[in-house]
Amino acid sequence: MGLLRSVAIGTGCDRLPRALMGGAGIILMFHGVRPAPEGWRGDYGLTVTPEMLRAYLRLVIAEGYQPLPMSEAMTWLDRPPRRGRRFVAVTFDDGYRDNHDVALPVLQELGVPATVYVTTGFIDRMHLPWWLILEAAIAANDEVTMAWGEGEIRLATKGGPAKDAAYAKLSRLLVAAPAADADRAAIDLAHRCGIDEVGMLDRHFLDWDGVRALAASGLVEIGAHCVTHIRLAGLPMAGAVAEMDGSRRRIEAMLEKPVTHLAYPYGDQAAINGATIDAARNLGFASAVIGYGRVVRRTTNRHALPRIALGSAETLTDLRVRMTGAGDLLGS
Ligand SMILES: [Zn+2]
Questions:
Q1: DSSP states of 176-219 as a string?
Q2: Distance, CA 7 to ligand 1 centroid (Å)?
Q3: Contact 112, 218 (CB under 8 A)
Q4: Domain hosting residue 319, numbered range
Q5: For residue 266, how far is its CA from the centre of ligand 1 (angstroms)?
Q6: Which end of the chain is more exposed for a tag (fewer CB within 10 A), N or C?
Q7: Burial of 181 (0-12, 13-18, 19+ CB in 10 A)
Q8: In this predicted structure, what is the pLDDT of residue 291?
Q9: Are 121 and 147 in a shared domain?
Q10: How confident is the model at residue 327 (pLDDT cuts 50, 70, 90)?
Q11: Based on the domain organization, do 295 and 272 belong to the same domain?
Q12: CB of 243 closer than 8 Å to CB of 227
């Protein structure tokens, strides 16, 4: 991939494949937006710095993409206003506090609208995600022990490389585990390490005043991201429907406005199936996004819209390559 990719991007040759295969637009997926860490951090690829967020947005604007909230992006897809113009929809998942404190000023500076999908269990302080417990436990300790299955896993976590290795190992286990098992292991870890779960939720996630402040900014629309951040495809259908509809109803009650857009938690291939997609459509959501992919085409299923994931591991070149919609050709 390396040489072709460098040649293509370095010479501006990404523009030709993009012209041919770039589709109707792109949806960017962000999570947290935080300054670069001073100490160790295991962010599971879920954060960008405000500088990188600004750079990504400047790139898409410079390339002529029209920034739109999801509502208007769906209208654009149904009736493209002008041949050759493309939209970019900027989205943030989960409901991190920094979306208001750090990302919103960048959006305001550049006049870019966005859609923030919130997991209502995080906003209601009912549910703390395992990846934050894991990060806090490893950051604060030289050794961690996590209950797993019938036994437990003990790992040395002294120094950055050991912390990285432990984080990678345990997060691989937890992301692949059934949600109930991952939650049980994470709660056990939190108790062993003396983690203040409510304090962590307050530090990391928006409260309802914060969600209202984002919605009142005039630049941000709020979408649903389920109640407990669970892989919907692993649930009985009634449970999946309750997760999607429950988060929508909770947001609608707190904001007193309709919620019409959904992001499937995790958004990976194990998170959704045909029945999940049908359920999102039948619940009346105007769109639903997944967590991977490249460009959006006019024919793309509105309830399985791909997104370009951008986290701590990606660069401007990655975005350029993915915007071409020619990832297979370029081998990325
Ligand atoms: Zn999420």
A1: HS-HHHHHHHHHHHHHHTT--HHHHHHHHB--HHHHHHHHHTSS
A2: 34
A3: no
A4: 2-125+205-330
A5: 5
A6: N
A7: middle
A8: 93
A9: no
A10: low
A11: yes
A12: yes
Single residue among 199, 233, 259 that ends a domain in this structure? 199
What is the C-alpha to C-alpha distance for residues 294 and 297, in angstroms, rounded to an integer?
A: 10
Looking at residue 14, which CATH number applies to its domain?
3.20.20.370
What are the structure tokens assigned to 244, written together? 């999607």
CA of 123 to the centre of ligand 1 (A): 13
Please name which of 32, 94, 100, 116 lies closest in space to residue 227, comparing C-alpha atoms. Answer: 94
Report how far residue 225's alpha carbon sits from residue 241's, in angstroms, rounded to the nearest whole number.
12
Same domain, 71 and 149: no
Query: Ligand 1 mean position to 75 CA, how many Å?
Result: 25
Q: What is the mean pLDDT of the chain?
A: 90
Distance 94 CA to ligand 1 centre (A): 5
Q: DSSP code of 99?
A: I
Type of residue found at 172: R
Q: Which amino acid makes up residue 57?
A: L
Same domain (yes/no): 223, 173: no
**β-bridge pairing 151-156 and 143-148:** antiparallel
Counting other chains too, the contacts that 163-168 makes at CB distance below 8 Å and 24 or more residues apart are: 163/40, 163/42, 163/138, 163/139, 164/40, 164/42, 166/138, 167/42, 167/44, 167/134, 167/135, 167/138
Residues 212 and 178 in one domain: no
pTM: 0.91
Q: Which residues lie below 8 Å from residue 260, measured CB to CB, with a gap of 6+?
A: 71, 223, 284, 285, 286, 287
**C-alpha–C-alpha distance, residues 307 and 295, integer Å:** 7
How many Å apart are CA 95 and CA 120, to the nearest integer?
Answer: 8
Structure tokens at 100: 């208001």
Query: Residue 95 Cα, ligand 1 centroid: separation in angstroms?
Result: 8
Counting residues of the chain whose pLDDT is more than 90, the rounded percentage is: 70
Number of domains composing the chain = 2
Q: Report how far ligand 1's centroid is from the alpha carbon of 118 (Å).
A: 8
